[in-house]
Structure formats: structure tokens, C-alpha cells
Amino acid sequence: xTEADAADDPTGFTxxxxxxxxxxxxxxxxxxxxxxxxxxxxxxxxxxxxxxGAGSLNYGHNEPRLKQVLVDYLMxxxxxxxxxxxxxxRREFLETFRDHVLAPRGLDHKVVFPGPGGANAVEAALxxxxxxxxxxxxxxxTNAFHGMTLGALSxxxxxxxxxxxxxxxxHATPMPYDDYxxxxxxxxxxxxxxLEDGGSGLNxxxxxxxxxxxxxxxxxxxxxEWLRGLADLCKRHxxxxxxxxxxxxxxxxxxxxxxxxxxxxxxxxxLSKSISGYGLPMALTLVRPDLDIWEPGExxxxxxxxxxAFATASEALRLFWSDDTLEKETLRKGAFIEAxxxxxxxxxxxxxMVAKGRGLARGLQxxxxxxxxxxxxxAFERGLxxxxxxxxxxxxxxxxxxxxxxxxxxxxxxxxxxxxxxVLTPLAPYTKEDA
Length: 435
Fold this sequence. Notes:
Layout: H1 3-8, H2 23-26, E1 31-35, E2 38-41, E3 46-49, H3 52-55, H4 64-75, H5 88-102, E4 110-112, H6 118-133, E5 137-141, H7 150-154, H8 159-163, E6 172-175, H9 189-196, E7 205-210, E8 213-214, E9 220-221, H10 224-237, E10 240-244, E11 268-271, E12 284-287, H11 307-320, H12 325-348, E13 354-358, E14 361-365, H13 369-381, E15 384-385, E16 387-389, E17 395-398, H14 406-423
Parallel strand pairs: 3-15, 5-6, 5-7, 7-10, 10-11
Antiparallel strand pairs: 1-2, 2-3, 4-12, 8-9, 11-12, 13-14, 14-17, 16-17
Helix pairs in contact: 4-11, 5-11, 12-14, 13-14
């Protein structure tokens, strides 16, 4: 590389890495270390992290107790790569997951280890739903995001991401998500009519796949009554309900599962991201026992048994899900953000900004993606990592670690307010003449 080339590529990555990279374009520094809710660039600059690995670090970076478990596991020469072999680490995780997550919630789902990432969990869910029902079609929702592999893309709404497939994405039918028509159309009236009309042309669905809060889609939070209505519709029509809890599970909205508030029990549940507790690759597809009709080896993958992730996941469940302390703290901090966002909306007007979200998945929807990008750029320059989401990138998205301190949360929100103020114009102050 010449000196001129180096000047155009100050981080040294452009010459070697694919153009497909994205986050590094928004945050053009080289990161080196991280602890808790703070990440550090190689020059020592600290950044408060309201991104948390896109929801993979609910317990923060390098949580000391989880780190010790991981170090001890490796230093003891424990099994690392295991496919689906029986190991002590796998048994410990399964029993801990049963005792701390499934049993307290009255769930008896079987655990499938589909591979290392969220898309693997979704692919397994879609594949099993089709195998169980003998049907091909799946209902998905507007602005949904379920992954970047072909099956997951077929039930994803974003046109840019779908366009990367290079082939037609078939066997999926999009339906309007909650409040897609701003309350002007009754819930499920369109889908129910299509399901009941023999002339509608809708193939009988194997499953419906849904997120309770659409993270990538723009922090769109479904109402509990809408989710209950969807579950009831699926039951009445013999359709399996797949709940994608990859980003919103593991406590992001309060309870361990994001659907707990609605009181529903999905047939199939997809988990990944923070399930390992430490940012290690791990995914689960949870299935009702009567749906577990796989033949041995019918669905597999080389990295479906990453044992160090079992070790950290088990410890994370013991540390954070033995009681409801984390859940209560997440709801409290979420309410604090909501109040702060409401004050911002009052300051700038609901024509410029809309507050969205649940728990510690929050968003500020601006009028377009350019404004949202400017806000996140201003925040980065002030030492705060934020991403955008939504079909046009118009939502400033907050996913801080659930373990963030009150001081860090307040400091981050102050930076966010300053960043919004650098981009938007506040409403004129109210005066006596306005009366």
C-alpha cells in the first residue's frame, strides 16, 4: 500500500475487507477493549455503548464473573468443539435452562441447537414447521427482520436486504403488523378474510413468524392484545406460531421472553444473541414436544455445540435469572428512558419525532433516515454508540446493556439530547401571546 493509499484508508481495513461491512462505516475508529457499558478505541478514547452488539451483550462487555467462568473452562482443557456429542457442559446448560427459564414459566419446550447464529434458529423453525404441517407457505409481517440466509430473508420485509438474495424469495406472504394502518383497520381482518375465503388465493400457511418488538424494523412494539389475537387466530386455523425472540429475548423488554407480558405460549421460539451471556455464538430453537419429529441428523450443523458458550450461558442464567431483580431493573430503566423521550418529543414536536419501544429497546423515529444518521454521527463524536433502524433508517435505536448503571444511562441520554439538539430545531417557547 502506498502512502497515498494509506491516507485514504486510515484504519487499514479497506484494502483487505469486503465492501459489505456496515457498522465500521458509521464508527470509523479501531476498537480494542471493552468493559461493562464502555468500549475503547486503540488510542484510548472511551465510548459509551448503547448498541451492545446489536443486543448480543445484554449483560455488558466482559462481565467479570462470566469471564472467569470462560477462562476457567478453557484453562481446564474442557471440550470446546462438540457438534451434538454429549458433554458435561451441554448437560449443565440444558438443566440450568430448564430450571431457571422453562420450568418457572410453565414451558416444556424441547431444545434444538441449530447452529451458531439467529438465522440458524429461524431456518430450523421454518423447516420444522413445514415438516410438521406438510405445508409450504409462511405468514410474516411488514417491516419484519429474521435474518440474512435465504429462508430467513423470505420472511423479512426490508427490500434492500431482500434484494441481496439474488433470487426470488418465495413461500412467504406478508401481512400488516400491529398498527400498520394507524388503527384505521381492525386487527387481522384482512388475514382472517383471506384464510376463510376459498377464492383468496392464499396458500394454507404452515406457520406465522412474528417479533413482539421489531428491532431492525424500527422498534415497532406490538400491543399485548394484538399478540393474543394473533395466537388465538393461529390456534383456530391450525397454524403454528413462531416467535422470533432473538433480539428481544433474554430480558431485553423485561421478562426473559418478550412475549410473557402477553400471556401467550408460542409453538416454536427462536433465541440467540444474548443467550450465551458473553457474546459467544449460540442459538436455540425451542419446540413443543409434540412437534419434535426430526429424524436423527435431519437438521444439523458443524458449530451447533460450542461448549464454552454453554458454560457462560449457564452462569448467566444463574446470575441474572434466579430472581426478578434484573427484570424489575430493566423495566425501571426503560420507564426512565421513556420519560426522557417524552420530554424530547414535547420539546421538538411530534411532527419531528416519535418515541417508541418497550423495556430497554427504545427508539426515536425522525422524519427521514438522513436526520437519524446525523443524530447518530453527532452522538458518536460525543462518545456514544447508537445505530439506526427502520425501513428508511429513520429510527435512532437504543439497545444499552441491561446492566448499565443509572449514571451511565443519564450520561448517554444527555449526549443523545445534545445530538438531537444539533440536528433538529425545537418548538418556539410558549408565551402569553399564544394564549
